[in-house]
Amino acid sequence: MGESLTLHTGVKIEKDDTIVWFSGPDNKVLARLNGKADRAWIHRSDVSLNKENGSLTIQNPLPIPQITRISKYELQCSVLNVSRVTLSWYNGTSLISSTSASDSHIDLSLPLELEYEENNIYSCHIEVHLFHTGDALGV
Description:
Elements: E1 4-7, E2 18-23, E3 28-34, E4 39-42, E5 47-49, E6 56-59, E7 66-71, E8 74-82, E9 85-91, E10 94-101, E11 106-113, E12 122-128
Antiparallel strand pairs: 1-6, 2-3, 3-4, 5-6, 7-8, 8-11, 9-10, 9-12
């Protein structure tokens, strides 16, 4: 908790400059700074903008899953203080199980019972959901 990641522009904002920060494969707007009006639009609660240089700071950017052995045949994958994430166990490239956290900051864990077969490679992955998207159909 309390960690942050700052991305620097390397420039000083002039009155006619506009800086827009994008994220992800869909190029969702994280933040926008209009130097002329000295206005900033921030689209996530964990993001802040420096109005002088346009640098973007993300609070608690990347939770790292921790794997612990519970017993001889059980592992547990955990992440602390997370929101909007999915935690998943894989055997090679095959998904075994997963669980998700909503918007509240919680500790999330996912146990895994080990198989007796040899040559299994287990991995725990975390997917961070940066944006809420939805679709509606009126009938």
